[in-house]
Amino acid sequence: MDTFIPVTQPHLPPLDEFLPYLEKIWESKLVTNGGPFHAQLEQSLCEYLGVEHISLFSNGTLALITALQAMKITGEVITTPFSFVATTHALHWNGIRPVFADIDPVSMNLDPEKIEAAITPQTTAILPVHVYGNPCEVEAIERIADTYGLRVLYDAAHAFGVRKNGRSVLEFGDMSVLSFHGTKIFNTFEGGAIICQDAKTKRRIDNLKNFGFVDEVTVIGPGINGKMNEVQAAFGLLQLKHMEHIAASRARIAERYRAALQNVRGLMLHDIPSHSTRNHSYFPVRITQEFPIPRDTLYDEFRAQNILARRYFYPLISEFPTYRGLQSAARSNLPVAVEISRQVLCLPIYPALDAQTQDRIIDIVLATAGLKQHAS
Description:
One of its GO terms (biological process) is polysaccharide biosynthetic process. One of its GO terms (molecular function) is pyridoxal phosphate binding. By secondary structure, the protein is α/β, with parallel strands linked by helices. It has helices at residues 15-28, 36-49, 60-70, 86-93, 112-117, 138-148, 199-208, 230-241, 243-261, 295-304, 335-341, 355-368; strands at residues 53-57, 76-79, 97-100, 123-127, 151-155, 163-164, 167-168, 175-179, 192-196, 213-215, 218-219, 267-269, 283-287, 344-347. Helices cover 36% and strands 14% of the residues. Helix 2 runs parallel beside helix 8.
């Protein structure tokens, strides 16, 4: 059987590079609760990402839940159905009602016009997602938020290192949340972070991620245990040293896909505007009706050959039992998201994906499209 090819996998530096970090943790006996590697990673990430205030978490979902709590969001929040389900779960865990709005057919992010149409007297915030690392229309969303007095929390799980018009996308909105899960371009095995705009808010977030403790006898609120441990932080510091290689490898793989597949009829490539940087966190394509076989048939062909191309995001969040009873979850309210969720397929992309393996993936697409196989 051929080697299993995942849609993504973490970059793992040589073990001998990681062992000195583990030895220092072992010697210090400081394994969690804000140790030296934790503090060092926060500082290093601020410098790398061009932000001032960052708070590390054990995973991105806890970061989203805590960000909503820190912002004191209640009522209804407008969000996208085209995302990983953790986006909406974070609202659910805070007792907030999600209101789904449709997405833009090109960017696949929340459509600002649909956001404005979904606002009610109960709306308190907007939760957009920078899907595949493609920046949202942040200026339009900011205008809407200012007009209606709404808060904005960005799910930036895919957007590590992404910039728009020279600015980090993490600078926009009231807060942004990153994921450092093993599938992300920068990872700490599991992990995440909240980026906020001032030191006072960071202190509140840091308290909330530690059960609400301010000191040994003072608890300011019903916080959670969201702290990143020292092993995660150490791995993150090591990952940062390899980010130039990681970024270059992903860019090279993405360009090989683009060159080989750009003229395939019925296959749409995902274009990112020139004013935005690409981090190549995913390589989505859309299989339209003009392609010789349906998306799911191509997906099954990949699986038969041990290749895990992913229908990401399918189904829509709004189609899961937990949320499909909401009025805003009706398919008639989300025609663009429904169509794209039935077309999208993310092809494997990760630094260790070699040219020969990538050619296998490309050849499957070309063969099913009735075209000559790719020549390396």
